[in-house]
Specification:
Number of helices: 9
Distance between the termini: 101 Å
Shape: globular
Structural class: alpha+beta
Number of strands: 16
Order of helices and strands: HHHHEEEEEEEHEHEEEHHEEEEHE
Radius of gyration: 27 Å
Helix content: 25-40%
Strand order of the largest sheet: 1-2-3-7-6-5-4
């Protein structure tokens, strides 16, 4: 009888040991097959940017369904800041998303245009995002999308979402599908964030295609100014005068009354940008004023080669800013000007026509030529 009692006492320990062994084997299987890593990566994406990152188009943007994410705690006052990377090894692709109020100072990478960009060829150019969104697409070597949703219940601020193909992986490819995916992730994340934080804003429709401006100071192809139908259309009647000032051609983007930044370039017969016209609204106007671009244009001891104007717009308490400036070309240490002479009279006339047309399209009033934008 003693042996039977001993066996009965052994059985519970034997079962417990067996159970632990089974758990160990199961854990080894999960690790060796990648199931655990996949679960962990999926959970990190679910929690990205405080759980508010729109995931529907991440796979399209990064051209992979194997993704992982990590927070970017930069202590910059942003609502959220995160990075999504491809989890499949050896492949490019990483998407950075930042979310902030327009009252929060942007990081240096987001602030645009910078001082040196504004008159350096077409370095300050952006393309409208389209689809009814208040957004732009920029290209500083890797594409980025910015969306600013003005809060109807608080005109002093807007919800700003900035999505970019960033380090370490940057864009997975140059495909239009990846760029459109980036646009969709950014717009839908902006919409979700505005709703979460009580910003009553109007978004747009689901983007079908997103186009990026060319990289560097190379602008889009030129056409005769008299045939302009997009962002330079307001200057068509000035075509004869523009030709007299050696800028008979236009480099323009599609007209879009929702874009927070608008560009129009007047080009020389050799299709080099000679004058740049810019309009900035809401958050973009605020960034333009705080990025030092105007101080760059007004260099001490140099002749003034720009004109500016402002207007009051219903969407924001921030005045709109309008600028025309003569553009330069940089070749190493040499600087040249495609438009050989700056004409203040022509610049003022062109800017007034540009600003009046822009204001009319957006319901802005009180357009005024100013000493500084």
């Amino acid at each position: 009888m003693q042996k039977i009692s001993t066996l009965r006492r052994i059985h519970p320990g034997w079962y417990a040991g067996t159970f632990i062994a089974v758990l160990a084997i199961a854990a080894q299987v999960l690790y060796s097959t990648g199931i655990y890593d996949s679960w962990r990566n999926s959970r990190s994406v679910d929690q990205a940017c405080g759980g508010i990152l729109a995931q529907g188009e991440l796979a399209t943007a990064l051209e992979s369904s194997e993704l992982r994410a990590k927070p970017l705690d930069l202590d910059d006052g942003y609502l959220a800041h995160c990075l999504v990377l491809r989890a499949d090894s050896g492949r490019n692709g990483s998407l950075e998303m930042s979310l902030r109020w327009s009252t929060t100072k942007p990081t240096s990478l987001e602030a645009f245009p910078s001082g040196p960009d504004i008159d350096n060829g077409a370095m300050g150019q952006v393309a409208p995002l389209g689809g009814g969104w208040s957004g732009i697409v920029r290209n500083n070597g890797s594409a980025a999308v910015q969306v600013a949703l003005d809060c109807r219940n608080d005109r002093s601020k807007a919800l700003v979402a900035y999505g970019s193909f960033a380090a370490p992986g940057f864009a997975p490819s140059k495909s239009a599908a990846a760029l459109t995916g980036l646009g969709r992730v950014t717009t839908e994340t902006a919409r979700k964030t505005a709703a979460k934080y009580g910003c009553e804003a109007s978004g747009g429709e689901k983007l079908t295609t997103v186009s990026s401006p060319p990289y560097s100071a190379r602008p889009i192809p030129a056409e005769p100014l008299g045939q302009a139908t997009g962002s330079c259309a307001a200057l068509r009647t000035l075509a004869p005068t523009a030709a007299q000032h050696d800028v008979p051609q236009a480099m323009e983007y599609p007209a879009d009354a929702r874009a927070p930044q608008v560009n129009c370039y007047l080009a020389t017969p050799s299709t080099k940008p000679g004058y740049g016209l810019y309009a900035f609204y809401g958050t973009s106007a605020k960034m333009f004023r705080t990025a030092g671009a105007t101080r760059w244009l007004a260099s001490p001891g140099e002749d003034r080669t720009y004109a500016s104007a402002t207007a009051k717009c219903p969407q924001s308490t921030e005045p709109a800013a309008f600028v025309i400036t003569r553009l330069l070309e940089v070749h190493g240490n040499d600087i040249t000007y495609p438009a050989p002479h700056y004409s203040p009279d022509f610049a003022n006339t062109a800017l007034k026509a540009f600003a009046d047309n822009e204001a009319k399209q957006r319901g802005c009033t009180d357009v005024r030529m100013t000493a500084a934008p």
